[in-house]
Amino acid sequence: MGDLRGNCLMGQSGGPTAVINASICGVIQEVLRHPEIEQIYGAQHGILGVLQEDLIDLRQEDPEEIELLKCTPAAALGSIRHKLPDVGEDSAEYERVLQVFAAHNIRYFFYAGGNDSMDTIAKVSAYADAQGYELRAIGIPKTVDNDLAGIDHCPGYGSVAKHIAAVTMGVGLDMMSVHLTDPVVILEVMGRNAGWMTASAALARRREGDAPNLIYVPEAPWQRERFLEDVRRSHARHGWCFVAVSVGAKDETGEYIATQKGEFAKDVFGHVQLGGVGFFLENLVRDEVGLKTRLIRMGPAERVAMHFGSLTDRDEAYDLGAFAVRSAREGVTAKMASLERTSNDPYRCELTLSDLAIVANEEKLIPRQWLNEAGNDVTPELLEYARPLIQGEVATPIEDGLPRYARLREAPVENKLSPWRPAD
Amino acid sequence: MGDLRGNCLMGQSGGPTAVINASICGVIQEVLRHPEIEQIYGAQHGILGVLQEDLIDLRQEDPEEIELLKCTPAAALGSIRHKLPDVGEDSAEYERVLQVFAAHNIRYFFYAGGNDSMDTIAKVSAYADAQGYELRAIGIPKTVDNDLAGIDHCPGYGSVAKHIAAVTMGVGLDMMSVHLTDPVVILEVMGRNAGWMTASAALARRREGDAPNLIYVPEAPWQRERFLEDVRRSHARHGWCFVAVSVGAKDETGEYIATQKGEFAKDVFGHVQLGGVGFFLENLVRDEVGLKTRLIRMGPAERVAMHFGSLTDRDEAYDLGAFAVRSAREGVTAKMASLERTSNDPYRCELTLSDLAIVANEEKLIPRQWLNEAGNDVTPELLEYARPLIQGEVATPIEDGLPRYARLREAPVENKLSPWRPAD
Questions:
Q1: Chain A residues near residue B274 by CB distance under 8 angstroms
Q2: Interface touch B15/A178, C-beta < 8 Å
Q3: Is B290 an 8 Å CB contact of chain A?
Q4: Which residues of chain B neighbour A76 with C-beta distances below 8 Å?
């Protein structure tokens, strides 16, 4: 099983995280310990780079730059959102992928991403198998949303949770300083269906009254009058109110609250969902409660804060990459490298393998019992789950006052096929 | 001159910064070296705390917590926006301030803030002098905006500049990773009249094409068609476009671009200035250039990032606090502790004293020649000025994965006067 010789290819897909490059570093540095794996290629912009034969030669990179990937946010190989069609519907893309693999003798394929990426690996593996092409393909999980099934928690989440908690702590102090004039803050956090990121703001609390005072996630329905009452009560009690809300918070009908009909539904050009949920709530509080409100929307800035990354998260991301390589060398294919928590205090996670189908088809939401009954806060169970994931700080090298992130040379691999022309 | 015995009082005013508490720490730790200064009081919420006789006894704080103020963002004593009336118009507030000072034998008054705070010190000093009350009052500068005159640069600016540059660098990498699907980012930065904060994003650049690609500040007029052309050109050249823009960016008529008439001027309730400039530009790019655009609005999160604070900034903030105390002990009054840059390479600043009237009445904007002709970028002069200010990192203590910020006991000082009742 372990004697498959050939080259390896890796790629990244979906929204970047602070530690997805650490996984790539883990893959590369582990591959270097296995001489049977000869060339080390990266696909630029994930599966699109495979289809376009847009590969770079990672053996030509400076090992110091590869090492710097351990503390470099975003996707150094470039990312993409591309879901392969079902092979029964359209096999052209699969044929092309296999042509590229065969042309470059790719026998090891490592793909870091979320559920769509695991779907890609499952489909490519099955197709290769059906065509009798020997391939070991392993998925490496990443997502800031923490919504992957088949894994205790997802690499990328710990760092974004740490960052959101640190911002909440700092802005909370700021708000307490200025609450006589600016009493309300709305922190809008990414997350369409899963509220894990928003919930992590709760890690910031140290004392009664600390931010965040209210938390709204998609898993618990939001109700307008109750929300206004929540804000009024928090303000009356503390003198301030810090609200953390998911982009995808929904009302009782399951509709996103940012698209509430009749209110902010359209701008003068007729666009809907004008400024998103944070903007909607900012205006609602100002108009209905009459308090000055500040909106914070970090958007992609949430997921790149490697200047305050979680060491636990980073190390797990790296280990999963290295483990994917070791597993493939031992003959494993069509699996996702995964984490199983075996102890919470002391925190301990073991490396395991998960079924791709579970990861591809399920979505892990916050269990309802980890949210309070009123649907405006988390319970201690959620904090116990999340707190170990934010421990430790990544020692990012600094140059001229700012992080020194990796810069790859991106030496192109010579093309062996004619350019790819999609059917349509 | 140096033999004035009595108590000292300090306060904070205006928007907080990452290092305004470091100045307070500098005041307290320096006062402890001068036994002639007996009690050490803090006014809660600045001059409002003086008027309301809402004072806390800082000698009762744990010295370790005082030390932690060195790396704690926001205003630990509470801040306020309150401009004293002209004494000729209404002297009631001045009388009250002097009553509180006399009741607590306050002979040393240190006030950290921006131009309004320097105005407060000037007015209180003059009134005390006119009434024959011996008082040494010194201002300690702070503002993230860096718009104070009479000082080379303002404490608070270096940390926010470092933070904005770090976010720009991280989000820039993120955008380059995902530019095939999400090519444009708008970073909205605080700053109504001065663009210093927005300009600091330029410190993030390491290579051609790096974020930020375009910078718009209030000091150079913004023009709609030129902006759209700038975005199209950047996207055509690099494949992406990162725009940093000041909240207060203005068009050629001097009007804020966020309130452009006829477009996004009003929501369905008739409110103007709906989502601010970032939101306006996000929609403009999406509609007119047809590119997917993400808006980042950090708001108060910009100024509290002590998890990545500038050591240079922090040390200067501390030194200015300590210098204010030493100056007062030597008999100085009605001045602002200030910084004069004597060398840029190596960077060196000396502690000096500035005239309060200059600071109170002028506003330091970016010189037009530090912006390029097209008004969409900064020149190397600005980078040379700003780069020394972001050097070094504050080693914030960490507890349970997050910064361990100071928590004051806030022991109240016994009131000696009847409650303050404002005239109206």
A1: 267, 274-275, 279
A2: yes
A3: no
A4: 177
Burial B304-340 (b: 16+ CB within 10 A, else e): bbbbbbbbbbbbbbbbbbbbbbebbbeebbbbbbbbe
- Whether B296 has its CB under 8 Å from any CB of chain A: the answer is yes
ipTM of this predicted structure: 0.96
- In this structure, are residues B196 and B157 in contact, taking their beta carbons and an 8 Å threshold? yes
- How big is the CA angle at B36 (ends B33 and B41), to the nearest 5 degrees? 80
User: B146 near B310, Cβ under 8 Å?
Assistant: no
3-state secondary structure of A183: coil
Q: Cβ contacts (< 8 Å) between B162 and chain A: which residues?
A: 401-402
- Hey, which bits of B197-346 come out as E strands? 214-216, 241-246, 293-297, 335-344
Ordered per-residue pLDDT tens for chain A, 424 residues: 558 999 999 999 999 999 999 999 999 999 999 999 999 999 999 999 999 999 999 999 999 999 999 999 999 999 999 889 998 888 999 999 999 999 999 999 999 999 999 999 999 999 999 999 999 999 999 999 999 999 999 999 999 999 999 999 999 999 999 999 999 999 999 998 999 999 999 999 999 999 999 999 999 999 999 999 999 999 999 999 999 999 999 999 998 887 654 444 444 344 444 458 998 899 899 999 999 999 999 999 999 988 899 999 999 999 999 999 999 999 999 999 999 999 999 999 999 999 999 998 899 999 999 999 999 999 999 999 999 999 999 999 999 999 999 999 999 999 999 999 887 6
Report CA Rg, chain B: 23
Q: Is B144 helix (H, G, I), strand (E, B) or coil?
A: coil
Cis ω for the linkage preceding B73 (within 30 of 0): no
State whether B393 and A391 contact (CB < 8 Å).
Answer: no
A165 and A200 in contact (C-beta within 8 Å)? yes
Q: State the DSSP H helix or E strand holding residue A204, giving kind and residue range, or none if neither.
A: none
Closest chain A residue to the Cα of B267, Cα to Cα:
A267
| DSSP run (H or E) holding A97 | helix A92-103
Question: Where would I find the beta strands (DSSP E) of B283-334?
Answer: 293-297
